[in-house]
Amino acid sequence: MALVASAPGKVLLTGGYLILERPNAGLVLSTNARFYAIVKPLHEQTEPESGDGEWVDVKLTSPQLSRESLYKLSPENLMIQCISLSESRNPFIEHAVQYSLAAAHGIFVKNRKDSLHRLLLQGLDITILGCNDFYSYRNQIEAHGLPLTPESLVSFPPFASITFNAEPSNSENCKPEVAKTGLGSSAAMTTAVVAALLNYLGVVNLSSSRGQEKENDMKDLDMVHAIAQTAHCIAQGKVGSGFDVSSAVYGSQRYVRFSPDVLATAQAAVKGPLEEVIVDILKGKWDHERTEFSLPPLMNLLLGEPGAGGSSTPSMVGAVKKWQKSDPQKSQETWNKLSKANIDFEKQLNLLRKLAAEQWDVYKCIISKCSTLGSKKWIEEATEPSQQAIVKALLGARDAMLEIRNCMKQMGEAAGVPIEPKSQTELLDATMELEGVLLAGVPGAGGFDAVFAITLGDSSSHVIKIWTSLNVLALLVREDPDGVALESDDPRGKSCTTSV
């Protein structure tokens, strides 16, 4: 019996770079683009000659990359060995498997360990699939002579084959191996695999009804979170902020990172017993903070891919950290200004949500009017104090985003990395001038990934048309506040992108 779990991709609206240090917060939206992990037994039954010294067979299949990796896993010490070509290895999945099994070993009592052992002797067959929105399909669209529109993306089959970045990396834009859109595929993939394995092994019992977590689900989600964060950080070779894994587990949120010390034992445990390490981590002080967050009503997230093949976040973060050390005074000034703008942005969005709840009819009317006008004309539509309060908050959010962009740009120029490259600045400025656009920006660490826009009411279709004329491909991604969940069936039987 196959077990399927899925986890969403993310868009970090604010908090880029600052989110690496407590207590700075980031606002992160989860999306309808999801990564799926399908886990089932590899063999129908246990081999009769299986004894105590056996190895467990693990097969990992990634159909979109046309890759299949075979592993041998020792149930005794949880060592994993790849027996396929080394280029087909996936460290995120390897660590997800090891730490998930270590959790089962560390938590189960003797009789449950026996049944776990019998289950493992059937082997593990793991398939991973990412919605098309995680990857760039511009080249294929152009090769087919199709227009750069969302409709062209809809015409591709779900989980279509992925293009590799052919050009060599250069210092200005260090591209990843696969052309991505920047939705956090490794975090969503790791989270989906951990959730599927923990469910398959009977460690947790997640809900299949998204957005309706009960109290006992939260305990299970916390376990998925701790193991997915550990696997993701160890696979990356560093302890990141973890916002991408947190949103993959819990959905849209305001996030403050955990103290990196909680993973110190995992980083040190190169040869120690893994189950002791993972029990230690599960008992550790996970002091991350997350509070509910979503866009105010009648606002839409839109993502556009300008076609530069993505950026390497780790190399950009490294350059910014180097600049901070070399010019502490100037970097601290920029840091403080950016932090203030982030706080102001969050304040304005929270105020808009409050105004929508208190005066829905007025709010709805103003958003509808503003959706057909450029921002300079919004204030003319507000003739009463209640309307003026809403428009003032809209313009306040805009101004805060412009200040965030300005600080990020200064940071990039000082650190010598393209946080908001010139081409992106021109695109974002043009987008912010369009009717019904509240704001636009480069998510997360910046660079050449997809840009985002927040649009009002029904103005998205107009923005998509303009983007197409500017050679920007509007993606099918939308905000979806739900985190990790069990799926009732194999996603290949249905489309996993929402039509526009």
Automatic annotation (TrEMBL):
Residues 402-464 form the GHMP kinase C-terminal domain. SUPFAM superfamilies: Ribosomal protein S5 domain 2-like. The keyword Lipid metabolism applies. Residues 180-251 form the GHMP kinase N-terminal domain. It is an enzyme of class 2 (transferase). Pathway: Isoprenoid biosynthesis; isopentenyl diphosphate biosynthesis via mevalonate pathway; isopentenyl diphosphate from (R)-mevalonate: step 2/3. InterPro entries: Erg8, GHMP_kinase_C_dom, GHMP_kinase_C_sf, GHMP_kinase_N_dom, Phosphomevalonate_kinase, Ribosomal_Su5_D2-typ_SF, Ribsml_uS5_D2-typ_fold_subgr. Its EC number is 2.7.4.2. Keywords: ATP-binding, Kinase, Lipid biosynthesis, Lipid metabolism, Nucleotide-binding, Steroid biosynthesis, Steroid metabolism, Transferase. Transmembrane segments: none annotated. Pfam families: GHMP_kinases_C (PF08544), GHMP_kinases_N (PF00288). Belongs to the GHMP kinase family. Mevalonate kinase subfamily. PANTHER family: PHOSPHOMEVALONATE KINASE, PTHR31814. This is phosphomevalonate kinase. It comes from Citrullus colocynthis.
